Amino acid sequence: MRICVVGCGAVGSLFAAHLSLLEDVEVWAFDLNELHVAAINRDGLRLSGAGEVVGHPRGTSDPAAIPPCDFGIVATKAMHTGPAIAATAHAFAEGCVATVQNGLGNEETLAEHVEHVIRGTTFPAGKLLEPGHVQWDVKGDTTLGPYDARTPTAEVERLADACTRAGMPAEAVDDARGPQWLKVIFNASTNPIGALTGLTHGRVCERPDLRALVTDLVDEGKAVAAAQGIELDADPEELIDHAARRDVAYDHKASMLQDVEARRPTEVDYLNGGIVRFGREGGVPTPLNSAIQALVKGVEASWTES
Amino acid sequence: MRICVVGCGAVGSLFAAHLSLLEDVEVWAFDLNELHVAAINRDGLRLSGAGEVVGHPRGTSDPAAIPPCDFGIVATKAMHTGPAIAATAHAFAEGCVATVQNGLGNEETLAEHVEHVIRGTTFPAGKLLEPGHVQWDVKGDTTLGPYDARTPTAEVERLADACTRAGMPAEAVDDARGPQWLKVIFNASTNPIGALTGLTHGRVCERPDLRALVTDLVDEGKAVAAAQGIELDADPEELIDHAARRDVAYDHKASMLQDVEARRPTEVDYLNGGIVRFGREGGVPTPLNSAIQALVKGVEASWTES
């Protein structure tokens, strides 16, 4: 089988490197970072940290070079989903395309370009250290499910099986919205609070006023999920408190805080903005998520002159 | 008559310099900034900008040096009200003490130390340029009213008359809560949005998402005021839009943004925090003001290690 990872930042590289270890899988790694692609083709794609892996996917920055594939795994930042799938859709005319991205709305964007879409949520994380080399910070599971009835269940299972055999444990389920919304609510309720205050996850959680705000944001997200009939796999509150432990992620700066410190656009429109949009569609008010989204967009605007 | 201005930053200096021009008023300027006090005593207290004034109040940093006064005018930052009045209350045993500070709760704090309290709201603004020299940015009116029945109306009128004669127009009213809440709602709904995003007042107002958040904050403040039977003199929305004009205060960085950039404690507990407290007492929910207060306190916390 042939798989193309679309967007080989940290998360995409975890999938590409692992899957390329399998004898029965040919892996393509598509990324616009030409230095990263050149390093992959010269020395392989190296992961270090939570595990040591050197994979040998075929790297390219040219979408026309990607041959027809059985699967795509899209791992770009959420704001790049549209251009990324528009450029690569030709390779997936007969295949299925899975998103393992953050936030809400990526499936809808993919479905505008390809027929068979797989909703995915993944917990492993890392960061690109240098071209060809990714630090693997966190191990974790991936959940995959069909976006709609057009996606064959057997294909979802085939992709999950390949990931699992490659060392990235994945489960195929009928409805992947539960884990997806769990992760989105977790991220939307904590990431922007770190980004707006400059505090680590642990320090956000130990301030009663901010922890109460996190809970209010979680409650809005839960209500929006419930209105769609989505059952969360776990209570986001438990994940949030677990992550705040000193031996887990107390000192972790949320990715959105890292983005703000580096003055990069954030994913807030796909996190809080996604909750607001689904809330509006379902008639569930989300005033706090709206406020947080507006504040983070304001921070982004402050980096440019009026 | 003898008046002591307690806290001679920008606003306090505007009052002290003007009042000292009157033949029938002896003015004391109390401030802990010894360089400022020394400059006042050596060269006088100079205002420049909206008007040119050189006054000659008697400066001191020693509360014991203040003689018995007819009036106090407290103009410290709101978080310093308690210590400032505790140190100076002896001078006002027979007098009345007016607050011209930002925020809610200053009258209550003064009333714990002195018997006759005057609630005041003032719109003039400026900034301390150097010891003895204040830039006078904005002219404006002051409104004074008795805090409770113990404060003689005639004394409120006597202080308002002195301010007006000195060039700081002031009006004595029966209930000064209308202008006070108007200013508090204006400040609480705009200042922290600038502080959290880094945007000027005009840029906050031209973003529809942030302008909507400002309106939601205003609406909470209006509801809390209404529950107490307070009638605002004007609609805060009109003031906010007026100030956003390019020929008014489009490029103004809110004082709270200036505080955040200089890593100084902000007055958020007396602005949004005051609205939250009165809301709780009146049974009016204020979730957005709570959220904003928590975020700004989080920013302040980020300046210190955990």
Give a short overview.
Two copies of one chain form a homodimer. Chain A has helices at 10-19, 34-43, 81-88, 106-111, 153-166, 177-197, 201-206, 208-227, 236-243, 255-261, 272-282, 287-301, and strands spanning 2-6, 26-30, 45-49, 53-55, 58-60, 71-74, 96-99, 116-122, 125-130, 133-138, 142-146, 170-172.
Strand order of the largest sheet of chain A: 5-2-1-6-7-8-11-12
Order of helices and strands of chain A: EHEHEEEEHEHEEEEHEHHHHHHH
Roughly how many Å apart are the termini of chain A? 51 Å
Shape estimate of chain A: globular
CATH architecture of the largest domain in chain A: 3-Layer(aba) Sandwich
Structural class by secondary-structure content of chain A = alpha/beta
DSSP strand count of chain A: 12
> Strand-residue fraction of chain A?
15-25%
Q: Strand count, sense and closure of the main sheet of chain A? A: 8 strands, mixed
Describe the structure.
Two copies of one chain form a homodimer. With 306 residues, the first copy, chain A, is α/β, with parallel strands linked by helices. Chain A has two domains: 2-172, Rossmann fold, CATH 3.40.50; 177-298, N-(1-d-carboxylethyl)-l-norvaline Dehydrogenase, domain 2 (Orthogonal Bundle), CATH 1.10.1040.10. Chain A is 44% helix and 18% strand. Chain A contains twelve helices and twelve strands. Chain A has helices at 10-19, 34-43, 81-88, 106-111, 153-166, 177-197, 201-206, 208-227, 236-243, 255-261, 272-282, 287-301; strands at 2-6, 26-30, 45-49, 53-55, 58-60, 71-74, 96-99, 116-122, 125-130, 133-138, 142-146, 170-172. In chain A, the strands form two sheets. In chain A, strands 5-2-1-6-7-8-11-12 form an eight-stranded mixed β-sheet, with helices on both faces. A four-stranded mixed β-sheet of chain A has the order 4-3-10-9. In chain A, helix 4 (106-111) links the parallel strand 7 (96-99) and strand 8 (116-122). The longest helix of chain A is centred in the middle third of the chain and has 21 residues, at 177-197. The radius of gyration of chain A is 19 Å and the shape is globular. In chain A, 53% of the residues are buried. The mean pLDDT of chain A is 96. The A-B interface holds A 193, 196-200, 202-204, 206-207, 209-210, 212-213, 216, 287-288, 290-295, 297-299, 301-302, 306 and B 193, 196-200, 202-204, 206-207, 209-210, 212-213, 216, 287-288, 290-295, 297-299, 301-302, 306.
